[in-house]
Automatic annotation (TrEMBL):
Protein name per its UniProtKB record: DNA-binding protein
Source organism of this protein record: Pseudomonas alloputida
Length: 213
């Protein structure tokens, strides 16, 4: 099943927030997307707006939208003429975006910053930054997360635990009537995750303090 595309109105609303002075990180938190996705959507919005007749007929807007989003943001704040010309163009999109509850969607592309506390995210990013500058040049947070997840799955299988059926399989095959499966051992699960994280960090030369078992 193909992923649903992000509505243009939402992309324009994201772009407008950047123009208004909101930083990409805050916009990302608001819409539950990553900073790179914020910038991608803003550029997508610019590409679509440039095709509008109202833009093509205005040399000022053609020149404005031909610049990078970063330069546009600097200019927009102080350029009243550009703001006045852009307002009627952005307005209908912003009205549509208000009716779309985009941030509450369930999506696999939601960034780490929306799934954990701010402190946890900042600590993790600090570890990634240190590793990328020392033991593992070029390391990204996505790459380290992938290593941690893959290591955890390998550990899970090694312990003789069968993987649960996929959601797609569950939706197509009626579940048999049988006694409920035993609940997961939360403490054991957390211990396995901590071990997987510790081993991955040790591979990159970082030692975590041993906690109490």
């Amino acid at each position: 099943m193909a992923a649903k595309s992000t509505p243009l109105a939402v992309k324009v609303a994201i772009y407008q927030r950047l123009l208004s002075g909101d930083i990409a990180r805050d916009v990302g938190r608001m819409y539950v997307i990553s900073m790179p996705t914020v910038l991608k959507y803003a550029n997508d919005a610019v590409a679509e707006l440039r095709l509008l007749e109202a833009v093509e007929s205005s040399p000022i807007l053609v020149g404005f939208l031909s610049r990078t989003v970063k330069i546009q943001c600097y200019q927009y704040v102080d350029d009243e003429v550009v703001r006045d010309l852009m307002a009627p163009i952005l307005e209908p999109y912003l009205g549509q975006a208000e009716k779309i509850n985009f941030a509450s969607r369930e999506s696999a592309d939601q960034p780490l910053s929306t799934r954990v506390s701010r402190t946890t995210e900042e600590d993790f990013q600090a570890i990634v930054a240190e590793m990328s500058q020392s033991s593992h040049p070029g390391l990204t947070s996505s790459a380290l997360l992938r290593d941690i997840v893959e290591d955890y799955i390998a550990r899970y299988k090694a312990n003789g635990r069968p993987l649960p059926p996929t959601l797609v399989h569950q939706s197509q095959t009626p579940a048999p009537v049988e006694p409920a499966a035993p609940a997961l051992d939360g403490k054991a699960l957390m211990k396995d995750l901590q071990c997987a994280l510790r081993e991955q960090l040790q591979k990159h030369g970082i030692e975590l303090p041993q906690g109490d078992d």
